[in-house]
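Sat 14:20. Reprocessing the chain from the morning session after the first attempt stalled halfway. Input below, unchanged.
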Amino acid sequence: MPYTTAEARQQLLDTMAEAAEQLGSGLAALGELYERVDELSADAVEEQLFRPVQSAYGRTRRAHGAFAERHGLPQRAFAEPVAGAPALGVKGFLDSAVSAIGAADGLLANLQDSMLPVEVGDVELRSDLTQIRSQLDGLSARARELERRLGR
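Finished this time. C-alpha coordinates:
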Protein backbone atom coordinates (compact mmCIF):
# COMPACT_ATOMS: atom_id res chain seq x y z
CA MET A 1 0.00 0.00 0.00
CA PRO A 2 1.54 3.32 -1.04
CA TYR A 3 1.91 6.07 1.55
CA THR A 4 2.92 9.69 1.50
CA THR A 5 6.13 11.09 2.91
CA ALA A 6 4.07 12.89 5.56
CA GLU A 7 2.47 9.61 6.63
CA ALA A 8 5.86 7.91 6.72
CA ARG A 9 7.31 10.68 8.85
CA GLN A 10 4.40 10.52 11.27
CA GLN A 11 4.69 6.74 11.52
CA LEU A 12 8.39 7.08 12.19
CA LEU A 13 7.75 9.72 14.85
CA ASP A 14 5.06 7.59 16.51
CA THR A 15 7.36 4.57 16.63
CA MET A 16 10.16 6.64 18.15
CA ALA A 17 7.74 7.92 20.80
CA GLU A 18 6.60 4.40 21.62
CA ALA A 19 10.22 3.26 21.95
CA ALA A 20 10.97 6.23 24.23
CA GLU A 21 7.99 5.32 26.42
CA GLN A 22 9.20 1.73 26.68
CA LEU A 23 12.69 2.90 27.62
CA GLY A 24 11.17 5.24 30.19
CA SER A 25 9.27 2.33 31.73
CA GLY A 26 12.45 0.25 31.81
CA LEU A 27 14.32 3.12 33.41
CA ALA A 28 11.64 3.55 36.09
CA ALA A 29 11.77 -0.17 36.87
CA LEU A 30 15.56 -0.03 37.14
CA GLY A 31 15.23 2.92 39.52
CA GLU A 32 12.93 0.87 41.74
CA LEU A 33 15.30 -2.08 41.52
CA TYR A 34 18.19 0.16 42.56
CA GLU A 35 16.29 1.20 45.70
CA ARG A 36 15.64 -2.41 46.73
CA VAL A 37 19.10 -3.97 46.53
CA ASP A 38 22.22 -3.70 48.67
CA GLU A 39 24.81 -1.02 47.96
CA LEU A 40 27.17 -3.23 45.96
CA SER A 41 24.32 -4.53 43.80
CA ALA A 42 22.94 -1.01 43.42
CA ASP A 43 26.29 0.15 42.05
CA ALA A 44 26.21 -2.70 39.51
CA VAL A 45 22.62 -1.88 38.51
CA GLU A 46 23.56 1.75 38.00
CA GLU A 47 26.72 1.10 36.01
CA GLN A 48 25.64 -1.86 33.91
CA LEU A 49 21.98 -1.09 33.29
CA PHE A 50 20.67 2.26 34.50
CA ARG A 51 23.26 4.53 32.86
CA PRO A 52 23.08 2.94 29.38
CA VAL A 53 19.26 2.90 29.45
CA GLN A 54 19.14 6.48 30.74
CA SER A 55 21.44 7.54 27.92
CA ALA A 56 19.38 5.66 25.31
CA TYR A 57 16.16 7.13 26.72
CA GLY A 58 17.51 10.66 26.55
CA ARG A 59 18.87 10.18 23.07
CA THR A 60 15.58 8.69 21.85
CA ARG A 61 13.62 11.64 23.20
CA ARG A 62 16.09 14.13 21.70
CA ALA A 63 16.02 12.31 18.34
CA HIS A 64 12.22 12.36 18.41
CA GLY A 65 12.15 16.09 19.10
CA ALA A 66 14.82 16.95 16.56
CA PHE A 67 13.12 14.88 13.85
CA ALA A 68 9.77 16.52 14.57
CA GLU A 69 11.36 19.97 14.46
CA ARG A 70 13.23 19.29 11.20
CA HIS A 71 10.02 18.21 9.50
CA GLY A 72 7.55 20.63 11.08
CA LEU A 73 5.70 17.95 13.02
CA PRO A 74 4.30 18.37 16.53
CA GLN A 75 6.59 17.25 19.33
CA ARG A 76 5.22 14.91 21.93
CA ALA A 77 5.09 15.58 25.64
CA PHE A 78 6.27 12.46 27.39
CA ALA A 79 4.61 11.44 30.64
CA GLU A 80 6.66 10.56 33.69
CA PRO A 81 7.39 6.80 33.47
CA VAL A 82 5.84 4.49 36.05
CA ALA A 83 7.79 1.53 37.42
CA GLY A 84 4.95 -0.72 38.50
CA ALA A 85 3.71 -2.07 41.79
CA PRO A 86 6.17 -2.46 44.68
CA ALA A 87 4.96 -6.03 45.08
CA LEU A 88 6.96 -6.92 41.99
CA GLY A 89 10.10 -7.15 44.11
CA VAL A 90 13.67 -7.23 42.87
CA LYS A 91 13.19 -9.96 40.26
CA GLY A 92 9.93 -8.46 39.08
CA PHE A 93 11.44 -5.02 38.55
CA LEU A 94 14.40 -6.53 36.72
CA ASP A 95 12.09 -8.62 34.51
CA SER A 96 9.91 -5.59 33.85
CA ALA A 97 12.95 -3.52 32.88
CA VAL A 98 14.33 -6.21 30.57
CA SER A 99 10.94 -6.62 28.91
CA ALA A 100 10.48 -2.88 28.33
CA ILE A 101 14.03 -2.43 27.05
CA GLY A 102 13.62 -5.41 24.72
CA ALA A 103 10.35 -3.99 23.42
CA ALA A 104 12.01 -0.63 22.73
CA ASP A 105 14.93 -2.28 20.97
CA GLY A 106 12.51 -4.36 18.89
CA LEU A 107 10.58 -1.26 17.85
CA LEU A 108 13.78 0.49 16.84
CA ALA A 109 15.08 -2.57 14.98
CA ASN A 110 11.81 -2.85 13.06
CA LEU A 111 12.01 0.84 12.25
CA GLN A 112 15.52 0.44 10.86
CA ASP A 113 14.51 -2.67 8.91
CA SER A 114 11.47 -0.89 7.47
CA MET A 115 13.75 1.54 5.60
CA LEU A 116 11.46 4.44 6.60
CA PRO A 117 14.42 6.52 7.81
CA VAL A 118 16.04 6.10 4.39
CA GLU A 119 12.81 6.73 2.48
CA VAL A 120 12.16 10.01 4.29
CA GLY A 121 15.79 10.98 3.77
CA ASP A 122 16.77 11.70 7.35
CA VAL A 123 20.47 10.98 7.87
CA GLU A 124 20.48 12.36 11.43
CA LEU A 125 17.71 10.02 12.53
CA ARG A 126 19.45 7.02 10.99
CA SER A 127 22.57 7.90 12.94
CA ASP A 128 20.58 8.34 16.15
CA LEU A 129 18.89 4.98 15.70
CA THR A 130 22.24 3.26 15.27
CA GLN A 131 23.63 4.94 18.38
CA ILE A 132 20.57 4.15 20.50
CA ARG A 133 20.57 0.52 19.48
CA SER A 134 24.27 0.22 20.25
CA GLN A 135 23.58 1.57 23.76
CA LEU A 136 20.95 -1.14 24.25
CA ASP A 137 23.10 -3.92 22.84
CA GLY A 138 23.83 -6.62 25.40
CA LEU A 139 21.70 -5.13 28.18
CA SER A 140 19.51 -8.22 28.46
CA ALA A 141 22.54 -10.46 28.98
CA ARG A 142 23.98 -8.06 31.56
CA ALA A 143 20.63 -8.01 33.36
CA ARG A 144 20.49 -11.79 33.50
CA GLU A 145 24.05 -11.95 34.83
CA LEU A 146 23.14 -9.42 37.47
CA GLU A 147 20.03 -11.42 38.30
CA ARG A 148 22.19 -14.49 39.03
CA ARG A 149 24.28 -12.43 41.46
CA LEU A 150 21.21 -10.91 43.13
CA GLY A 151 19.78 -14.37 43.75
CA ARG A 152 22.64 -15.29 46.06
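The chain has one domain: 5-77+90-150.
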